[in-house]
Amino acid sequence: MATVQSIGSSTRIEGSNLSDQDVAKLLGTVRITKFASRDQEEVAGYYDALEVVLENYPDIAIRESALFNLHGILLKHVGKDERHRGGYKSLSNSVNAKYPDGMTKVIFETTPPHLVRKEMEDLLSWTRARFKEKEIHPLLVVGLFVYEFLSIHPFQDGNGRLSRLLTTLLLLKSGYGFIQYISFEHQIENRKSDYYRALMNCQKRRKPGKAKDIAEWIHFFLGCLLELALKLEKKSDALEDSGAYLNGRQKAVLNFLKQASPVKRSDVLARFPEVSVNTLKKDLQHLVREGRLEKMGQRKGTTYTLGDAGT
């Protein structure tokens, strides 16, 4: 579901008319040999590029060659883009907002072609150094990278889509694995006006030789990530409450009880010192509700044994 939403939203932000249902139907085709429209070509390319990111992110270097490769995959099905696929732009372009009624609005002008390679070299080098030195929080590094990438707009076409693929790549490389289970692109689509407003307002203050003021963009970017994390946590809690599954931590608690039952709550807390007290209490309550454990006593004297469903 997250994959379909990501592909559908990211292509619709750029003007595609395919719904999530259309995307799911297209991707469900065993072997696509011919596309009926450019929208379908772009969906297929985004799917291929996203699959590469999700399956290979630990090995994808933050370098020009990796960007060229992803850009080539992103546009590989679009015949009209063949001449500028996998290479920096040769003509000036701009960031345009495309709205459902067909209206297009210029958000800001971008880096001229002759300066692109140098600016991208500086951006990629800065990003690698920040991740290595770890002096700046990785989410701030990712947010600034995305902003600068969009400001440069290094490719003739596909910059918006590629920026969202690179967001996923950098978040995964920074340890934020949850991003593959919920759609960042869908969040951007839902807040499209805020997205363009933050970019446009920051660009107004983007003057050569002056310090950048991108607080509005960073606030928007981090706000999107926070909302996504809360949504995913809510979905996870709903699944746990329904008894649909046990997560890895809850399985570890249950396995501990299988080896040491009966145990006191303090024994469980001592066995998993890296987990917060409140989280472990919640896990124990869930296991009791599911019949995996039986609870005896109260407060500090509480002990747990295996329930019928836990054996």
Strand and helix map with partners:
Layout: H1 2-13, H2 20-27, H3 38-56, H4 64-74, E1 94-98, E2 104-109, H5 113-133, H6 138-152, H7 159-173, H8 184-190, H9 192-204, H10 215-242, H11 248-260, E3 263-264, H12 265-271, H13 277-289, E4 293-296, E5 303-306
Antiparallel strand pairs: 1-2, 3-5, 4-5
Describe what you observe in this structure:
The protein has 311 residues and is mainly α. It has 2 domains: 2-237, Orthogonal Bundle (Fic-like fold); 248-310, Arc Repressor Mutant, subunit A (Orthogonal Bundle). It is built from 13 helices and 5 strands. It has helices at residues 2-13, 20-27, 38-56, 64-74, 113-133, 138-152, 159-173, 184-190, 192-204, 215-242, 248-260, 265-271, 277-289; strands spanning 94-98, 104-109, 263-264, 293-296, 303-306. The strands form 2 sheets. Strands 3-5-4 form a 3-stranded antiparallel β-sheet. α1 crosses α8 (184-190). The longest helix is centred in the C-terminal third of the chain and has 28 residues, at 215-242. The protein is elongated and about 75 Å long. The chain starts with a helix and ends in a 5-residue tail after the last strand.
